[in-house]
Amino acid sequence: MYNTKYIESLKLNLKMTKRLCNQLKAKLRRRQVQLRKRPENFDKVFNIDQRQCIACLSYRGILWSSRTFNKALKLYVTCGQKGYEEIRRQNLPYPSIRTLQERIQYLKFKPGVLEDVFTILKIKVETFKPEEKHAVLLIDEMAIKPGLQYDNSTTSIIGRPTMKLPGGFDSSKEYATHGLVFMLCGISTK
Question: Can you give the residue ranges of every domain in the chain?
Fold first, then answer.
């Protein structure tokens, strides 16, 4: 019923596929042995998520850990955009610049002390030379338009005073009319 040439070609195709499968299995076994023999320093240099990246040969879909994010942010701050892009071109497992920007974008800017900003500032200052650590603190008061607004980043209504009013007045019914701005500027750096 079937053509013998067709059957022979299928048998040949099956034989070649089995051979390729065996070659790939051998290659996989060699890679697994290499991974088991990897040096201890590999674990010191790369975090778990970075090692997964190297093993998978892909950065897509990786959920980067906080440790890797902080290392990447420190490299980005130290090397700048061009230097960081070069590090990534060297196939080192770090998140893209856009991923860093997206992660920073979701910092919550609520009234009060911004702890997340201090964390990033600490990472940046760690890369400074001692003479670059001299800074000046600028404080400015600015008038703002009184009223309430919805803040998408914090999903809350803003516009009420966050500092206590003098004389013990209830500030929950008043609108904020001024804002205090604190800015830390480097004397010898930007």
Answer: 4-105, 115-186
